[in-house]
Amino acid sequence: MPAARRRRRSQRSGLAPFTRRLFGPSSIYLLIIFLCAPIAYIVWLDTNLVSRLANRQWVLPGRLYANALDVHPGQPLDPAGLERALRASGYRTWDPPSRPGEYRRDAGSIEVFTRSFDYWDGSEPARRLRIGFSNGAVVRIDDRDRGSGLPLVRIEPPLIGRIYPASDEDRVFVPYSSLPPALADALVAVEDQRFFDHGGLDLFGIARALLTDLLRGEWVQGGSTLTQQLVKNLFLSRERTFSRKISEILMALLLERRLGKNQIMETYINEVYLGQHGQRAIHGFGAAAVYYFDRPLDELGIEQLALLAGLVRGASHYNPRRYPKRAIERRNHVLDRMVEERYIDARAAAMARQRPLGISPQPGWTQARYPAVVDAIRRQLRREYREDDLRGAGLRIFTTVDPALQDTTSVVTTMTIARLERERGLPRGSLQVAAVLVRTSNGEILAAAGGRSDGTGEFNRSLDARRPIGSLVKPFVFLAALSEPARFNVLTPLDDSPLEIVQRNGQAWRPQNYDSAFHEDVSMMEALAHSYNVATVRLGLAVGLDKVIETLVRGGLARPLAQNPSLLLGAVEMSPVEVAQLYQSLANGGFVSPLKGIREVVSDRGHPLRRHGLQMAATFDPAAVYLTDYLLQRVVSEGTARALNAIMDEATPIAGKTGTTDDLRDSWFAGYGEDLLAVTWVGRDDNRSMGLTGATGAMSVWAALMLAARIQPLKAHPPSDIAFMDSARIQYRGACRVLESVPFIKPHRPGEGGGC
Amino acid sequence: MLTSVIQDNGQAFPRPAPWPLAILVILSLNSACAGFHGPGPAPVDHRGAGPPVPEAVATTEPVEETGVEAHATDRETATAAATPTPNPAVIALAGEADQRLRSGEAEGAAAALERALRIAPDNALLWHRLARVRLGQGRWEQAMALARKSDSLATGDPELRKANARLIARARQLAGGNE
Lengths: 756, 179
Known about the structure:
Shape of chain B: globular
Radius of gyration of chain A: 34 Å
Radius of gyration of chain B: 28 Å
Shape of chain A: elongated
Helix content of chain A: 25-40%
Strand content of chain B: under 5%
CATH topology of the largest domain in chain A: Beta-lactamase
Largest interface: A-B, 71 and 66 residues
Oligomer: heterodimer
Structural class of chain B: mainly alpha
Order of helices and strands of chain B: HHHHHHHHH
CATH superfamily of the largest domain in chain A: DD-peptidase/beta-lactamase superfamily
């Protein structure tokens, strides 16, 4: 093939004079012989170019944004918390903050110059703000330019991931219109001085490069225009052959025909290779700005732009993290070229030369930072949109992810199971973990962990690890019972004596209690607080298995369940996200909101495509849920989760339930405070026993997580048909006990006693 | 289309003679034979291509309802002022919701109210207002559920409970009429 191309090339060199005799009658055969092959080749190249360009331009990934932080007076937030949020969005300290994206933290206040940002519902302008704090809360927000107080501001959300990026490439698309002029100047000065004048080839540049080659006596690549470089980057292999050079020249000329200079420059700045981080190739200046400086491109100074332009020549050779001296020399060379080409004056260049490289200590991230939660969002997108609508349209997707909570979740889950392994003498790395955090009032997923963050692998346990849920099912058995207030109240006595059930297959099933003891008369309250199995099975059978299953299905379990009594003890496999959906209804007073990770989807031009507004169904009787919630608070205050009381102290009352499966294979905890619900799971991937109960494993993770998340105590919102007994005497753990303010659904006042 | 591309390029970027001539010929051939699909952004109508937009329910229908509810607004603003901790952010967002409703942006109003509810999830009045927006959009089921949610939090506010009851009755009536 190269030989053939070379032949065609030599034919082509005679083309121009030949065309003058083109229309003579005898030349028709010659025309076919001499013209057809090169024409066919060029037509083929051109067609190829068009189709590949078309494909290329539409692989813009969708951008996923975290939740935008709403800052308002009265909000529980300290300066450190706001600073973390600002840094997550790429803000830098600068004194005084003089450009968008800069802030200064003082004692008790933060001064910040916000960036403007286009939200689904309009733009937030760039503003200079002073945010005052006192006692761990925001007290004032002042607009420094207008000198007035503000009730509410939004800090623009950090980018947390992309959908459908090319496998291991990373891009931050920069349109031509927001290309910093100094970057274009630097590129042109150092790579292609006549870019805006030539037609794809720079003949003068080629001549000069050839001359240099001849003088040096070696073949050095040079004289390539930006257009040629782009063609090379986009379409051609890395080998350096003569035929490839010919294709490059032809395609550069064709490309100039197809695209204007602005489009070529735009494609170039978004395609050029500028570095490597492990498997990940950094393409384009937008991604490079984040990778090297951890800042958006439009916030870089001239010396930083000059460095990036300098990297085009050899990103690994001039790698500023590895070879800072080389990088500085290269940067200064670019600045010199800019002076020579009169883009900047000598004084500005001298000042820029004085500055340090300014590379961020850690590479900025632009790729999915939060794999589990981004995975959940991708799946929601795939469920609800056609793939064609998502692919390459440059969508902006506003998610519900709380970046601070997500950071906390990733760190705390991993640290806690590492601690559990140490304390229990378990093999290091043997335990796995999953967690889901949900805003209970609207079902928004705030954070998720799909496994240890120090581990490897893509398995997302929060969505894909379906495990038996054990006692986590019990609240729904109790809810089904309490939905019949004439039959059941929180003090209804249950029988916890030995039980034998003959199942459909003829086998006898004898449920046991965890403490291997049986209890005579226990109240509903005691049975759930201490998670008595036998009493729960009797209760479930009294209510009816069908009613229990109906409760689970209405609560959001989207799968059919077999009518098996072992279901009453949690012989049903669910993922942490499915459990979180069920508990959301309990935490939200009986109102089910489907869990979601996406709030709005906006096209690349700012046109809102779709809003995933709040969805709510009035599923359960709020009064019955109130009683279930009361029981779940007892689990924490005196039941299987009472260890939480000491740990959470100020956050109580909270509600929760432990879950443990046979042979201690799965350790679960589901619990909630005001407007925040978390479900945690700890276990082993090989499903072997790990020796932890719900209270020793998953509850430790839950507590660490909720402390870090500053969970707020539950507020009491008794529905209007709830009334309270001032006090009630009951049998409790074999002794007489007086309970205060026991709720019941009017008019079904519980009977007292139980032999008391 | 191709001609215009070439003209644009030709005007803006004059180039040396021999190459462009040959290529012009070739490109014309190409475009004549194969048909040219410009590499620029293809016109894609996302609204048409996307899944059905649930919010895009007509907002024009219950005009009468808005009139009825207009009376309630004053009284409920007073209720809002009487809540123990009036959060300025919530008041600002509720105001924004009203403004958006007036300019016919029901979904924008819902967004503002949902944002306020993230700050104050136990504010019964905000839930009621969101229910009203959904009622105005013809989303009866959502309106009823949201009004019930409001009601479960409005134990100490008989006026708001009456307004919720009216809203639920109205939504049920309208939903029944549509079936």
